[in-house]
Amino acid sequence: MTKLVLMHKADSIYEDEPDAVYDFPGSYLKAIREAVGDWVVYYEPVKAGPRGYFAVARIARIIAKPGVEGRFLALIAPGSFLRFDRDVPRLVEGRPLEAALAEADGTLKRGGAVQLAVRRLPEREFARIVNLGLPEDLEAMEERRYDPQPGLEERPAAFERPVLERLTRRKYRDVAFRRKVREAYDYRCAMSGLRLRNGGGRPEVQAAHIVPVAEDGSDAVSNGLALSATLHWMFDRGLVTVADDMTILVSRNKVADDVIDRLILPGRRLLPPVDPRDSPLRRNLRWHRENVFGQAAMDEPLPWD
């Protein structure tokens, strides 16, 4: 198997959804076949935006693109996509992270491999990019982030985890997902508009999966919503959901109007994320409406009773 860099533009004319499918021409078929079952790094070219290397995923299989001769779709393994905590630039200290893009003197090449949308990536370079984007001590970083008195207690040394173990470890992925979703919504609840913090500065807002991980939902920010604890509870139980036009829908036979008036923004429209590219995907919202909304039997106390 082979690891790859896949170029992705948010405004691409192709049917790319980084957490689900990558659309490519037959000229890259050999390289992508070699990568089936292995990991890839997504890269945003300089002219398309500032993100550089921004995510990882694993290719599950390849199919011919229906109705389009000469094009193919690389299907992403469910649950494998993960945004980097920090976007990684193409150049570090003036040198490309991919050796294949460097001239003999270490400077960036012009043309050639730089223009390729699919590039093979050696294991060592893959590990370096992932380590820059997803630090191995991310969990410890999050624990210390809002410590009111840092440095007063001895911290355990971070356990060095292999890169691939880190990418598949649920606890690590949960931390990475939570950080990116809360950041995407500027630490505000997308339904109430409130941005609350405790005395130590820790945000009250949580990160909710729209399609749950247990149902093959991805850890993409576009499959997440920043919600207060109460609204997160309600969303997971199908008491509230979101329409394609971002209107907040309420299961009125289970939630009284006065409760909704207290919890949800006037106008009942979802707050957008700071970056429109992080907006919830309609396919995820549709799944929640069809599979969760209005279907839960309420056999537990309501949090506002």
Task: Explain this structure.
This protein has 305 residues and is α+β, with helices and mostly antiparallel strands. The protein folds into two domains: 3-133, ph1033 like fold (Roll); 169-291, no CATH class. Helix content is 23%, strand content 21%. It contains eight helices and 13 strands. Strands 1, 2, 3, 4, 5, 6 and 9 form a seven-stranded mixed sheet that branches. The chain has a two-stranded antiparallel sheet with strand order 7-8. A hairpin with a 5-residue loop joins strand 12 and strand 13 (248-250). The longest helix is centred in the middle third of the chain and has 15 residues, at 170-184.
Summary tags:
305 residues, alpha+beta, ph1033 like fold, 2 domains, 7-stranded mixed sheet, two-stranded antiparallel ribbon, 8 helices, globular
List the total number of helices. Answer: 8
Low-pLDDT stretches: 152-159
Structural class: alpha+beta
Number of strands: 13
CATH structural architecture of the largest domain: Roll
How many domain regions?
2
State the name of the first-level CATH class of the largest domain.
Alpha Beta
